[in-house]
Amino acid sequence: MGLPDAELFPLETWRRLVARELRPALVRSAGYGVPSGHAGLRAAIARHVGVSRSVRASADDVLVTQGAQQALDLIGRVMIEPGSRVAVEEPGYPRARLLFQSLGARVVGVPVDGEGLDVAALPDSARLVYVTPSHQFPLGTPMSLGRRTARCSNGPGGAAPW
């Protein structure tokens, strides 16, 4: 689970592209890039989420990480103070739960059913909610439109959509 099929990897294409990039002149001119990621990649991601998710974003709004775990770590370090309550799906992604706990959060499981995360069961004191609405892990359930647009009492102004 979670590992790609190595037989499907285009190894010859990869070797050719790596060899091209490792030419001596290119290696000598290499250096550290921008910490937020390659500008072209960030612009492409911004365009993609604009078209596929109707999210208005520019390249400056995108931060490229090495994977989901690094992204969750950065979010947690910004959002969580020791003792903060974090709501996670139950069942859910164990590594997210462990990461939030390692940052000092009090992690609370919220049940998942045939419509996704039970928004009505979110604790009012949650500082952060970790949810996978498009393809819940491990059940694979997409969150229903009703749940996506539901309001709960613990958001800004007392009624925030999740």
Description:
The chain is α/β, with parallel strands linked by helices. It contains 6 helices and 6 strands. The chain has helices at 11-21, 24-28, 39-53, 68-79, 94-102, 145-149; strands spanning 85-90, 106-113, 116-117, 126-130, 151-152, 160-161. Strands 3-2-1-4 form a 4-stranded mixed beta sheet, covered by helices on one side. A two-stranded antiparallel ribbon has the order 5-6. The radius of gyration is 20 Å and the shape is elongated. The two termini are 28 Å apart. Residues 155-162 have low confidence and may be disordered.
SSE ordering = HHHHEHEEEHEE
Report mean pLDDT, rounded to a whole number.
88
Shape designation: elongated
Strand tally is 6
Radius of gyration: 20 Å
Could you list the spans in which at least 5 consecutive residues all have pLDDT below 50? 155-162
C-alpha termini separation: 28 Å
Strand percentage: 15-25%
Helicity range of the residues? 25-40%
Based on helices, strands and strand pairing, what is the structural class? alpha/beta
> What is the count of DSSP helices, taking H or I runs of 4+ residues?
6
Please summarize the sheet with the most strands: 4 strands, mixed
- List the strand order in the largest sheet: 3-2-1-4
Quick overview:
The chain has 162 residues and is α/β, with parallel strands linked by helices. The protein is built from six helices and six strands; from the N terminus they run ααααβαβββαββ.
What layout of secondary structure does this protein have?
Layout: H1 11-21, H2 24-28, H3 39-53, H4 68-79, E1 85-90, H5 94-102, E2 106-113, E3 116-117, E4 126-130, H6 145-149, E5 151-152, E6 160-161
Parallel strand pairs: 1-2, 1-4
Antiparallel strand pairs: 2-3, 5-6
Helix pairs in contact: 4-5
